[in-house]
Amino acid sequence: MMTATMLFVDFYRSHWAATVRLAHVLTGDQSIAEDVAQEGFLRLHPNFDRIENPGGYLRSIIVNLSNEYHRRRARDRRRTTRISQEGDRARLVARPEDVADDELLSAVDQLPYRQKAVLVLRYYEGLSEQEIAKAMGVRSGTVKSLASRGLKRLSKEVER
Amino acid sequence: MSDLEHELRRAFRRRAHSAHIGPPPPLNRSEVNAPRRRRSRLLPIFAGGFALSSLAGAFLAGRTTAPQYSDVAIAGDSTGLPQFRIVGDDRFEPVSVEAGTVRNLRAADGYLQSFGAQATANPVSLFITSRPSNRPDLWSTVRLPETPVVVGKVTFWVSRGPGATLLVRWTIDANQYRAQSVGLSQDEAIELASQAKPRPVGGLDIGTPTAPLFPGAEGRLTSSTHQQRVTELGSATGVTLRVRTASDFDWIVLVVERASVTTRFSFERLIVDGKTGLLFANETQATLVWRPAPGIVAELRAPTAADVSTVAALLRSN
Predict the structure, then answer these.
(1) Closest by alpha carbon to B253, among B232, B235, B233?
(2) Residue A39: CB partners within 8 Å, gap ≥ 6?
(3) Is B317 exposed, middle or buried (0-12, 13-18, 19+ CB in 10 A)?
(4) Given this model, what pLDDT does residue B181 score?
(5) Distance, in angstroms, between B24 CA and closest chain A CA?
(6) Which positions in chain B have a beta carbon within 8 angstroms of at least one beta carbon in chain A?
């Protein structure tokens, strides 16, 4: 019989990559994403055997932690934006669709975090409104509204 | 679904898969097996952090200028608030420190600060080094945690008094570690403070003078069957090389650098806490920490892929 620790280790191994990826999409930075993922697993661990849906619980943690990182590092990011943009320009030699993706992602990164998180959970994770609401701790109506506002703002950015 | 939504989906997927994700870092067993408790990461290390006071006499060591240490100093200024700055090799600065974000919470009889070092791959060990303001020549160092952390945060607390300087040092390997402040709620801080009864660092009984790192001429080589090689690595007169590890690895890596000593690739089999380990020296990197008694503690790290291939080549050549 598997102990709780063994189950957790198993869960950790099988969910590590996906968790880092989600955090990466949310934060846009791989090293931060790895930090977020680690912190997420550490927060999950004490409650692991009491939680019905550890995957969902972990996702909520990741969304919240990414938000914390956004806020905490906003100032630093502003400072490094110029460097990032230079990096983006360097990538302009890439395929046209990659350039479009970069521009779109850049616009997504400018969205308020909750709008961004809703879009990530919907279009990357493929979650339903109810699932997103649960992950973010908001009502379904709020999810709908955040998604709508986010998409509208993105549309405007893309049209420019 | 609109074009925009399709594009979003594609862009998110591309970002997600642009990350080069290796296998998950090994779990820190002590973390996972720790008894369930609130703030499980903080309390034991909190206690350890305050052991800085009581253990200072027992764990004295000096500073090193070895480039693989990045030093973060928190020095009190006239306001008593900490200033967070890099004082060592600044190669790792971009990834390591959030300047000015160190928590400085006033406790009943001292300051509390918390820091975290997050390891994402190889084991990381933290060295908390402090010195009283009235004896700048005396450094005391405590290694926390006792077992290098492989994944997760190492968080520790220290007390410090006005005027004391605290150094936090951690082993660095290819930007895999980052240091960050760790936020606690005010309630948590107060609770922890009330449990810990911190003593100002300035009031420490430092004990015997600090031994320098890499003392060279001190100690004796007694344990190695390959005395010459280790002597070349460690000191002109030989040292007692006592490797302490809680590693689960089949072999360990000891990387030594000493600018004044010619080093070369070498490896030895060692008995490490009853396990057979592989001593591996490389002149390009180093981590060797000395303690005056009972011997030298070699700082170990897990073998990297490069180490494995290098050692494999050496083994083949022998």
Answers:
(1) B233
(2) A61, A65, B153
(3) exposed
(4) 31
(5) 6
(6) 2, 4-5, 7-21, 23-25, 27, 31-33, 36, 40-41, 95, 98, 101, 118, 120, 151-153, 175, 178, 180
CB B46 within 8 A of CB B112: no
Residues 6+ apart with CB under 8 A from B93: B70, B86
CA B64: distance to chain centroid? 13
Indicate the average pLDDT of chain B. Answer: 35
**Beta-carbon separation of A154 and B8 below 8 A:** yes
Higher local confidence (pLDDT), B6 or B42: B6
Instruction: Write out chain A residues lying below 8 Å of B16, CB-based.
Output: 21-22, 24-25, 124
Evaluate if residue B95 carries a pLDDT over 70. no
Measured between alpha carbons, how far is A29 from B104 in angstroms, rounded to an integer? Answer: 28
User: Looking at this protein, which amino acid is placed at residue B210?
Assistant: T
The 3-state DSSP class for residue A43 equals helix
The bridge status of strand B241-242 relative to strand B296-297 is parallel
Interchain proximity A25–B16, CB inside 8 Å: yes
* Residue contact A124–B25, C-beta within 8 A: no
* Secondary structure of residue A65 in the 3-state scheme: helix
Contact B219, B239 (CB under 8 A): yes
Mean of the pLDDT values across residues B251-257? Answer: 34
* Partner-chain contact B20 A30, CB within 8 Å: yes
Does residue B288 contact residue B99 with C-beta atoms inside 8 Å? no
Place of tokens 């994944």: B151
- Is pTM beyond 0.80 here? no
DSSP assigned state of A127: -
